[in-house]
Amino acid sequence: KIKFRLAAKDGGKFIGKLTGHYMAGVMYIGELLVGHDYRGLGVGKTLMAEAEKLAKKKRVHKIYLDTGVGWKAVDFYENLGYRKEARLEKHWEKQDSWVMSKLL
Hints:
The protein has about 100 residues and is α+β, with helices and mostly antiparallel strands. It has one domain (about 1-104): Gcn5-related N-acetyltransferase (GNAT) (Aminopeptidase). Helices cover about 20% and strands about 45% of the residues. The protein is built from two helices and six strands. The protein has helices spanning about 45-55, 70-80; strands at about 1-10, 15-25, 25-35, 60-70, 85-90, 95-104. Strands 1-2-3-4-6-5 form a six-stranded mixed sheet, with helices on one face.
């Protein structure tokens, strides 16, 4: 398993990050965080695009992640081409989550 981290900065200030890992042709996005003042400005979309570039470079054929059922993030990921693959009941902190994925 190879871990990676991407960061977004505005000048010298960190405004977002994406972390994950990949192995055997599959990448997992574990965390995508964007500062409140920078949401809706394309920071998350740019970080996801950079993760996809890395995935293609490393011959990854699938990216997956999980996010809460009913969260705004579901629409965000769907707009980037990710689809709901499975529902995890009472997962993180006993909340239902979607596993979402995208084939490259």
